[in-house]
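re: ur msg from earlier - yeah i can do the zinc ion complex, just paste it... oh wait u already did. ok heres what im feeding in:
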Amino acid sequence: MSILRKADKNLIKELNRSAVINVIRRHGPISRTELAKITKLGQSTMTKIIEELNNFGLVNEIGEANSTGGRKAILLEFNKLFANAIGIKIMQDHLIFALTDLQANIIEKKEIYFESSSDTQLIINLMKDTIKQLLIENYLEINNLIAIGIAVSGLVNGKEGVVLSSPLLNWNNVNLAGPLKEEFHLPVLIDNDVNAYTYAELEFGYGRNSDQFICISIGDGIGASFVIDKKLYKGEYGGAGEFGHSIINVDGRPCYCGQNGCLETYLSNQSLNLTAQEFFSRYPNSDLFRKSINYEAITSAAKNGDPLAFVLFEQVSKYLSVGLINAINIFNPKKIVLIGEALLGKDYFIEKAIEKSKNNFFKRSFDSEIVLSDLGNDAWVQGAALQAINQLFQPPIYEETNSLVSS
Ligand SMILES: [Zn+2]
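and the outut:
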């Protein structure tokens, strides 16, 4: 048997620490017995780790589990107020900020608008100023802040903190993390926005009870994320999930990606305008005439009984069902969670799309469950904060100077 080097022992210690804190984060308040059962750690190792975490302030001991006599069980709880995090979602013409606790509960939210196609430097400056403002307004200092997470559409190099390409924002190779790290001396994590939402889904939504699932977002763009064993699968270069560019019609509408007939060209907000144009002549009295058409607009038109809105939803339902069938055939997922702005019109098209998607390869054997996320819009910024918070609790959690403990 080989003898472990000191470095290896330290690594095991870090892994154990990380395992304990993450179980307390996700399952707390939790008894020591339950914690030992989940982490499979020995009594002495666990006691030592809990003592360290408790002394440091990351874990609190609270009350007793029951009063049925015998020894009172003290429960362990993650101290979500230990520090704060910031989550940011970048939209085409505004930024959404959330100041959160360490469980990504929102303390304050802010939306700051800018001219679309603004210089990225201006947007980075807006981020710096708004973060400072949020801290001041909540009587917090920079030392209270522990991490910043940013969600952005497009392809992201998370390691370098660079937005490689965001067609919706018209950004290429924008270093977002660098200037913010320099300003705040904190870890700054950047991820694709659908991935960010999925972190929230894992923490607060369907992910709590599902190890494998797919999130599909429908809104300005069409994207997907894949959760395998409770972890996001991001692909070799972090680009997994460009589901919107799966081709559903080889001779179809041209797409900015260079192909024709991508799912996104039939299902995104922008594509609704193209579909509407094909039908305008038949519905000259539609309220949607001369309006900028998106899911919000057609939902309110449908509520007013506008016939063109129903036609558009019919089309969207058809294309979504094809997208769902492709996703089901490729991944054979247990569950698909639909997210995004299109859910506004859920009463008008989603049931039908789900019904049609049941006609997939697996129809005689089993069903994939398709559900609608009920987290709502806050999940984008909460997920952005969470991806940054989660990173702090990966092993080794005590090593880096910007981490929770600089031993
Ligand atoms: Zn495309």
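cool cool. Residues 245, 255, 257, 259, 262, 264 surround zinc ion (CB under 6 Å). ping me if u need the other ligands too
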